[in-house]
Amino acid sequence: MLFRLFLLSVTLVITMSFTQSINGQELKHMNLHYGADVKQTLDIYTPSGKESINHPVIIYVHGGGWMRGDKSNVSDKPSFYTNRGYVFISVNYRLHPNATYNDMANDISNAVKWVYDRADQYHIDKQRFNLMGHSAGGHLVMLIGTDHSYLQHAGIPANTVQSIVNLDGPIDLVKFLPKNEQYKEVFGYDRQAWKEASPAANSVNQHLPPMLLVTQNRNSVFDFIEETKKAGNTADIFVTHSLTHREITKLLGSNNNSAEAMSLTKAVEDFLKTYNSM
């Protein structure tokens, strides 16, 4: 009898560590492995009490200069988006020096495939997948969203991704790296390699998901937007004037009453609604 009670208590502790209620608004499933590496994990936040319907999903990729960062850096976004009917997923991925940027992009692609294969389990609509990333994470979601080979290699059906939100992530490394020398440690010193690692190089590809680029500098994304529109794609821009690089993700969906933070949150929300029938 005592042994059975012990097993029951252990089971309850384990269950609570993986599925918890957050502020009474959503359920979370933590540290789920989509791969064998310790960094290949993700957290899933699902709307509470709405298990009878399938929801659109936002798969979020953290920043950190491709060298640091963690999936726990989500601020108020899980509560904000689950309250609006989305499943919100935050992904970890291998980092430099243990991984190349290609390894990181493949990690994110494999995480998307893991979620796609378990969509029914977490009440996710397979027709409404959205990618969002900040800084280095923004670069990575743009890379796998504009270069069809990443998601195809992971075995994800074409046109699965409905939209991409890039929160101030670099898209043209040829312009970015000379001004940010510290990241040459990740991408090397070959300008041709920088071009190949740049989502901007894929601007002419057709049938790309609609994209919203949040940036502090319109000039850094203007050429990309013009080129990708010529190829028949949809790309919108939101330029921040007072928010810092860090605040762009920290204040998205927060209760901060900054006028620009509220405008950013509304712009992202309206963009996502357009492609998710919310």
What are the salient characteristics of this protein?
alpha/beta, 9 strands, globular, 11 helices, 278 residues, disordered N terminus, single chain
Helix content: 25-40%
Quote the average pLDDT.
91
The sequence of SSEs as H and E is HEEEEHEHEHHEHHHEHEHH
Relative strand content: 15-25%
Give the number of helices. 11
Low-confidence stretches: 1-24
Radius of gyration: 19 Å
Shape: globular
| Widest sheet, order of strands | 1-2-3-5-4-6-7-8-9
Number of E-type strands? 9
Summing up helix and strand content along with how strands pair, one would put the structural category as: alpha/beta
- Main pleated-sheet profile: 9 strands, mixed
Distance between the termini: 51 Å
Tell me the layout of helices and strands.
Layout: H1 2-18, E1 19-22, E2 26-33, E3 41-47, E4 55-61, H2 77-82, E5 87-91, H3 101-117, E6 124-134, H4 136-146, H5 148-154, E7 161-167, H6 173-176, H7 184-187, H8 191-196, E8 211-215, H9 219-230, E9 235-239, H10 245-250, H11 259-276
Parallel strand pairs: 4-5, 4-6, 6-7, 7-8, 8-9
Antiparallel strand pairs: 1-2, 2-3, 3-5
Helix pairs in contact: 3-4, 3-5, 4-5
